[in-house]
Design a protein that fits this description.
Order of helices and strands of chain B: HHEHHHHHHHHEHHEEHHH
Helix content of chain A: 55-70%
Distance between the termini of chain B: 62 Å
Oligomer: heterodimer
Structural class of chain B: mainly alpha
Number of domains of chain A: 4
Strand content of chain B: under 5%
Strand content of chain A: under 5%
Order of helices and strands of chain A: HHHHHHHHHHHHHHHHHHHHHH
Largest sheet of chain A: none
Shape of chain A: elongated
Distance between the termini of chain A: 127 Å
Structural class of chain A: mainly alpha
């Protein structure tokens, strides 16, 4: 038996023992692999590379090959020497060992600093505070570990659009387990989060418009320390982006009462995964209003809700009229630049008024709506002037044409008279 | 009233002797025949030039050349200044009609063979006026510093740069540097309001002087008629009044275009943005632009663009010198090569211009 055959049988046996399967080499792997790395040379030769092996792996491209994680001596050609305990070979880590396995380097700031000076090194620490980490510690091997999200052998930087943890790909990565009803069955939690998220204003922005500014799962739940936000923290989660809304809301009497009643602040009206576009009808006393879920006719909150809604309605009505007139001005080919500026300002006031709804104070909302109305009314005045100018121009042209035509006729007769 | 006019005229006439001049005009005859209509085309172009001067001066009152002020001042003029929109619109429309009528005037002269001896210099000066008018158009197009004009100027000056040997120098002189920048705007402004108008006025003066001195050209068949059968009208006042009548009609068309199709300003030029779609030169450059686009990268050993530029230069020189080579065909009435050449040139210009807008 040749050396190569013996080596092949040994590798096969070793692989079966540690759960490795012969891998397919994808097109990506045309990228040059380290030339003198015996681990790769042998495993590739025998087609025993891990199934998810990629030459683009961030570690591999940074010069950290198999031995960097699994130990052993990649310079030795003989398997017994290369994969001996003496050479520090540790093999494949168990599920329980994985966080510490990655943490060997990723929790060591002195080591990591060499690659990225500002890289965080608290991932493992955070992980053990997450639901995933807590359960893993308790021996639950179904929960996510580092490789569940990052993969094991085709890890890419989170900034790489092909990465499983690139913002646009995060929902898909979480969905892998969290939308699998059978897999999640023992945990008794819903599995429709992805579906709801995809319908939400955030999901549409991220998944349909590829807007990486929109929040993915990890932006609200955290990533390594993933946990469902509690009553106290939910408004802070939303407030990370919606700063003003949080600031206004947290100063209100309602914020304190919500906390006492264990009501999720933002979620109570806006929902969680399926956050829809906020409309003015959400506030007030109409059918779609949330205020009436707690407030009844006659109480102060009910009245306040009515007033706030009517403030918003007023500014929207004037703004819409101005917008219609602006369209008319555009249609007739007149200048609408200044009208546009005014409408932008009016719209800005409207947005601010809508944000001020979270103060639940109609006077504060009213101050902004008045500003918006004034700007929209100025825009209407300007638009009317443009429409009037348009008519004057045509009238002026008619008068000029009439005058010129009379002159032309007069000249025509004068010429005839002369030529007679 | 008429007494006052008479006395005033007398006063001026005593000093400047206007009567012989008026007598000259009164005795000057303009032939009347089936092609007389073409006599008016040059007059229309002249009228449009006068409108250009008047509206141009009015625009000057508000226009501020500069990367940060060119666009803004035109915008201000169009939105805030009373009748500013009308003046700019008339200036832009009459610029286009001006060049259109120069073309009509030139081709009518070409087909009626009015360039023949003794009018060679009138033809030459007229052709130079056409080139200057195109220069007016090219330089004026950039002044509002909008997106389309900026990129069209970039492409246009690039084409000028394709001229062999001196191309690069021409490009740098036109642009005032390597790229189209504020320096280009400044010098295009200078070309548009000082340099070209100065030269144009002198050559226009000569062109008109030649016409007045030599009188209107008579077509061959008219020339051969017996004297008593030659129908004519006095230049003054008959022809002048007919001119005025046509000018009024053109003025009315111009007003209609300016009011109902106001000239757009577009977006402000951003040198750092990529070129928007639909970059095209003014219509009178379109046939040349489209030809260059159709040419392959290399023709023989010359670059396609260079070949195109050389081709148009040669064609322009041949066209300019038509009074000197055309005489050789004079006897050959059957062949009528001139008519065929003229029609081919017109069809070529129309077809390539149309393709430029369709493709």
């Amino acid at each position: 038996m040749t050396d190569l055959k013996i080596r092949g049988i040994l590798i096969l046996g070793f692989s079966i023992l540690f759960g490795m399967v012969p891998g397919k080499i994808s097109a990506q792997q045309d990228i040059a692999l380290p030339e003198n790395d015996q681990c790769i040379i042998c495993h590739k030769e025998m087609e025993f590379l891990p199934e998810d092996f990629s030459a683009n792996d961030v570690h591999l491209t940074a010069g950290l090959s198999c031995a960097g994680c699994h130990g052993g001596n990649p310079k030795k050609e003989e398997m017994e020497e290369a994969m001996s305990e003496k050479a520090g070979f540790v093999g494949v880590p168990s599920k329980q060992e994985i966080p510490q396995f990655c943490g060997k380097c990723h929790s060591d700031i002195k080591f990591m600093r060499e690659f990225q000076p500002r890289i965080p090194t608290d991932q493992v620490e955070q992980y053990y505070t997450s639901v995933h980490g807590i359960k893993l510690k308790k021996g639950d091997n179904k929960v996510a570990d580092c490789t569940s999200c990052h993969t094991a052998h085709s890890i890419l930087s989170a900034k790489d659009s092909r990465s499983t943890v690139y913002p646009l790909n995060v929902p898909e990565t979480c969905k892998h387990c969290h939308s699998d009803a059978q897999y999640m069955e023992p945990y008794h939690i819903p599995t429709d989060q992805y579906q709801k998220y995809a319908e939400s204003v955030h999901g549409k922005l991220l998944l349909e418009e590829n807007d990486t500014g929109a929040p993915a799962c990890n932006d609200c739940h955290g990533n390594h320390g993933a946990i469902p936000p509690g009553v106290a923290s939910i408004s802070h989660v939303c407030g990370t982006c919606h700063v003003n809304n949080l600031q206004y809301f947290s100063k209100t009497k309602m914020a304190r009462e919500f906390e006492e009643l264990q009501i999720h602040a933002c979620e109570a009206c806006h929902g969680n995964h399926r956050v829809m576009d906020a409309t003015d009808n959400m506030v007030g006393t109409g059918e779609k209003a949330f205020c009436i879920e707690c407030h009844e006719k006659g109480d102060a909150g009910y009245k306040e809700a009515e007033l706030i809604h009517s403030e918003l309605e007023n500014v929207v009505a004037v703004y819409d009229s101005a917008k219609t007139l602006q369209n008319k001005v555009q249609r007739i080919g007149m200048d609408d630049a200044d009208i546009n500026y005014l409408l932008q300002e009016s719209h800005q006031s409207l947005i601010q008024a809508r944000t001020l709804v979270h103060t639940f104070d109609h006077e504060k909302v009213g101050d902004k709506t008045k500003e918006g109305i004034m700007k929209a009314e100025d825009a209407i005045l300007l638009a009317n002037k443009e429409v009037k100018d348009y008519k004057v121009r045509r009238l002026g042209f008619s008068v000029a044409t009439m005058f010129i035509t009379i002159l032309v006729i007069a000249l025509f007769f004068k010429i005839r008279q002369i030529e007679k | 009233m008429s007494q006052i006019i008479k006395k005033s005229y007398q006063w001026v006439d005593d000093r400047f002797h206007l009567t012989p001049l008026i007598e000259f005009m009164r005795h000057k005859k303009v032939p009347v025949h089936k092609h007389s209509i073409w006599y008016y085309m040059g007059g229309v172009a002249l009228f449009l030039f006068i409108i250009q001067v008047v509206t141009g001066i009015l625009l000057l009152l508000y226009y501020q050349s500069g990367v940060d002020s060119g666009y803004e001042s035109v915008r201000f003029l169009m939105t805030k200044v009373n009748f500013g929109w009308l003046i700019r619109s008339i200036h832009s429309w009459s610029a286009n009609l001006f060049i259109f009528f120069i073309f009509v005037h030139m081709f009518s002269t070409f087909f009626t063979k009015a360039f023949r001896k003794p009018r060679e210099l009138t033809w030459l000066s007229g052709f130079v006026l056409l080139l200057l008018a195109m220069g007016f158009g090219f330089s004026g197009y950039l002044l509002p510093w909008n997106e389309l004009a900026f990129f069209a100027t970039k492409v246009g000056t690039d084409i000028a740069g394709a001229v062999p040997l001196i191309g690069d120098a021409i490009k740098v002189v036109l642009r005032g540097g390597e790229d189209v920048t504020g320096a280009t705007l400044s010098r295009f402004y200078a070309f548009h309001v000082a340099l070209i108008p100065g030269i144009f006025t002198v050559i226009l003066g000569l062109h008109l002087l030649f016409i007045q001195r030599q009188g209107m050209h008579e077509p061959d068949y008219f020339k051969n008629l017996p004297q008593e059968k030659k129908k004519t009208i006095p230049f003054f006042p008959n022809f002048i009044l007919r001119d005025a009548l046509l000018w009024l009609i053109v003025l009315n068309i111009l007003l209609y275009l300016a009011v109902f199709f106001p000239w757009e300003l577009g977006n402000k030029a951003d040198p750092f943005s990529s070129a928007p779609q639909g970059i095209r030169p003014e219509w009178y450059f379109m046939f040349m632009f489209q030809t260059l686009k159709f040419l392959p990268a290399h023709i023989l050993f010359i670059e396609g663009e260079v070949f195109g530029v050389l081709f148009f230069t040669v064609v322009a020189i041949v066209w300019l010198l038509v009074p000197f080579w055309e005489l050789k065909f004079k006897g050959d009435k059957k062949a009528r090569p001139l008519k065929i050449i003229g029609i081919v040139v017109i069809l070529y210009i129309i077809a390539l211009t149309a393709l430029g807008y369709i493709l």
